[in-house]
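This entry is listed below:
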Amino acid sequence: MNNRLCNWERALREYRYSVDLTMFADKSKFPGCFDCNLTDGHRLQTITFEDRFRNRAEYSIEVWFEVIYWKMFSQGDYRRNHRTRALIQHVERSGISARDLWAACRNYTDAETRVSFDAVRKLLGFRYQTGVATTATFIAFLQPDRFPMVDTRIAKWVGWQLEHSQFTASQLVRPKFLDSKETVIQMHDFGFVEAWIKWCRNTATLLSQSTAQHWRSRDVEMAVFRAWGDRGNGILFWTFRLWSGHPDLFRRHSGRDELLSASVDVELQLLIELILQLLFFKQGAKAAYPGHRSLVSQRHHRIDARSSPRGNIASETRNDQHQ
């Protein structure tokens, strides 16, 4: 099998996001809930958690609370408890039911418009323009075949690819978030979100046709999350190309978008970055992503977007950082 495809498979296989829902401070108020411990947090364990949510989402408001806690888990005890309590309090004050949230999400997955996405975001209690990553998380859990999660790590990975890989395909859009002082993705970046969703779908289709497993849009995002590692968090990393350069595969991503034009050689730049980090001891730099942070040591891989991921993801939490 082509090495680029093997890299994709390896990135997905090594995905980890360990979460212990039993640590929620108010767990005793919700009998039968917050009883999952995703010890390893690998893909199959995470899919089981997604299935649990999807099977109960229309009738159980508690599973919506569990997903918020899951998403925020890497943010530390205070933040994950605070954010989960905030959603619970908003729902209780507003009289919002699981059916209300489920119907709003279904409306978006049917229509896929900015207005329908924004309706879910507002129903979740987010004011101003925030809450994009959190909203995308629920939608991805409901329909993982079609929708990936999105957050600031994804935004930074896309930005890196567009800057360094001479990626010419028109599908990916540079996030405005990268050129601002904002700490989370906001609604004025919805064009970037739409482009990311479409790109993940097309990439999942291409990978499903070229590997031995079925890829979901959410799987593509998981592989990016794993491959990006802690880049930008002050941790040294190595990267690899996911699949540029294959003579037959992925020449066109969709329509006339060239996904895999000849790959620019970025190894020299990566070497320079590595030397600079060694010289200036950036390993201890403050983590830049409050969101979906990997809780296991990461051997860093590189996935090129002409093909695809390099990476990890982040959010208002998983935080937006999945926000």
